[in-house]
Amino acid sequence: MEVRHRKLRTENEDIFEAESKPRFKKGQPGKRYFVVVALLGILFLGYIAIAYDLKPVRLGSKAIDTLAFSFNLQKPFYVVVIDAGSTGSRALAFSFHESILGGNLVLDEELYTETKPGLSAYSERPKDAAKSLIVLLDKVRSVIPRSEWQHTPLTMRATAGLRLLPGHKAQEILQECRKMFEESGFLLSKNSISIMEGRDEGIFSWFTVNFLSERFNTHNPGSTVAALDLGGGSTQVTFSPNPQQEKKLDGHIYSVNIFNHNMSVYTHSYLGMGLMAARKEILTYGMNLDNVNPKTVIQSECINPIVSTEWSYGGVNYIIKGPVNGTHKLVKTQNFAGGEEDRPIVNFPECLKIIEKYVGRIKNKPEGLKDHEIYAFSYYFDRATEVGLVDPFFGGAIQVSAFLKHAKEACDYPNTDQPFICLDLTFIYILLRDGFGLEPTTKLYLYKKINGHELSWALGAAFNIIQNGL
Questions:
Q1: Residues 6+ apart with CB under 8 A from 394
Q2: Fewer CB within 10 Å, N- or C-terminus of the chain?
Q3: Tens of pLDDT along 384-410?
Q4: Which contiguous run of DSSP H or E holds residue 341?
Q5: Residues 40-77: tens digit of each pLDDT
Q6: Going by C-beta distance under 8 Å and a sequence separation of 6 or more, which residues neighbour residue 39?
């Protein structure tokens, strides 16, 4: 078993030189001195509170820190992370400052912007792949002062989309992106542009969820939550197991340093179990794809018989249709005349068999996951909101079985606006039940944001950069 030590520590680190003097308007010396004295007095009281571990210190330290920041006693600094995913590229520009009490890192602002498709769609046009990121860079530049660009680390990490490409094609895309970023004005190193390993993606996502939900405050692994991240090409499962659970897990355990405390973290990235990669394999089940062309027609048991739509994945365009001899059923109409209508539906039992066989490839299951509080995001959240399972702005909690209930409803309704919703919901349910061993009654907390910040591995990556450099 490989054990790696990863630091995500941010306390007591000298990151950038902070301004030492607040700025005040000229001509108000009495007011200036009064404010300085008052601020110093508050800071002194805060120091005493921390020294003696007083209970109100957390709220008080935040107020003191906010006051100090408003007087420019701390200078913000920035980190830019480009998430080059399989279905799109996202730029996240983070603004931080160090707390005046204790030196803890405080996240202030976050820019999130994205563009589609992902870099893997440009597998034959690497220069165009790089050009697709220009719009992201322009938006990042608009929120970071030009004087700070040369001090601002920029990193791009590609995920499963490029992992699934032939090695030479992926490297050609990365080289073109590096050329563009070297002219951006931001701070780069030789490791700034790369394909990220699945374990890093999982650990960084887990860090983001637990940091934003303030689960690291007690430094107790039992207070942390599990993170399920469903991307386009891969999916990650990450949690901090107890000693009994750790014995049952077959590897994939890492020692991670969180704010000067070591924690054991299990993470497993399942390549090919992302929603889009799985969709492609399920749709093409039993087909020979050696001679795929832009007009290749794919007919699937998981698609309604009336559907005919175009779909692109990995730079390949497909025409997706339902089966030739599709399934129908008689449904009572809701009009005054009563009667029945012949409705085309997905043959759910047949579709289910295909999906179960595909998910059955997962052999290394995350034992003990169901015993943790679980936060699920990315495509889990997206599909749940599309069928009204949770609020699209606030998220919420559901049981795993809710995905099955809505999958069956979607499969029984011909919806040309959402041609893949039956397949996607069924896959998510089987992935959670058979792939990850969750019970139908297991509760999932589905969110896109916590406290206004995106649930993404990018924030964890930004912390890692601040601690360890690019």
A1: none
A2: N
A3: 999 999 999 999 999 999 999 999 999
A4: strand 340-345
A5: 555 555 554 444 443 333 334 555 666 655 666 678 89
A6: 67, 68, 71, 73
- Strands 396-399 and 443-446, sheet pairing: antiparallel
Identity at 268, one-letter amino acid code? H
Angle between helices 421-430 and 348-359 (to 10 degrees): 50
Q: What angle do CA 292, 296, 301 make, to 5 degrees?
A: 110
Torsional class of 339: left (φ above 0), alpha (ψ -120 to 50), beta (otherwise): left
Catalytic residues: 201
Mean pLDDT within 7-12: 40
Count of other CB atoms within 10 angstroms of residue 222: 9
The Cα diameter of the chain in Å comes to 87
Hey, what amino acid is at 427?
A: F
Pairwise CA distance, residues 43 & 27, whole Å: 26
Please classify residue 41 by burial: count the beta carbons closer than 10 Å to its beta carbon, then call 0-12 exposed, 13-18 middle and 19+ buried: exposed
Give every CB contact of residue 334 below 8 A, 6+ residues apart in sequence: none
What is the rounded distance in angstroms from the CA atom of residue 136 to the CA atom of residue 154?
A: 12
The residue-averaged pLDDT of 126-141 equals 96
Candidates 329, 324, 336, 351; CA nearest to 407 is 351
DSSP string computed for 255-297: EEEETTEEEEEEEEEEET-SHHHHHHHHHTTT---TT--TT-E
- Given pLDDT bands bounded at 50, 70 and 90, which one contains residue 3? very low
- The answer to whether the CB of 301 falls within 8 A of the CB of 323 is yes
Please tell me what DSSP assigns to residue 371.
G
Where would I find the H helices in 159-314?
160-163, 167-182, 198-212, 243-248, 275-283
Give 20's Cβ-side CA count (13 Å radius). 1
Nearest one of 197, 120, 130, 128 to 157, comparing CA atoms: 197
Task: With 0.85 as the threshold, say if the pTM is over it.
Answer: no
Question: Considering just the CA atoms, what is the radius of gyration of the chain in Å?
Answer: 25
Give the integer Cα–Cα distance in Å for 80 and 459: 10
With CA atoms as reference, report the closest residue to 218 among 163, 259, 166. 259
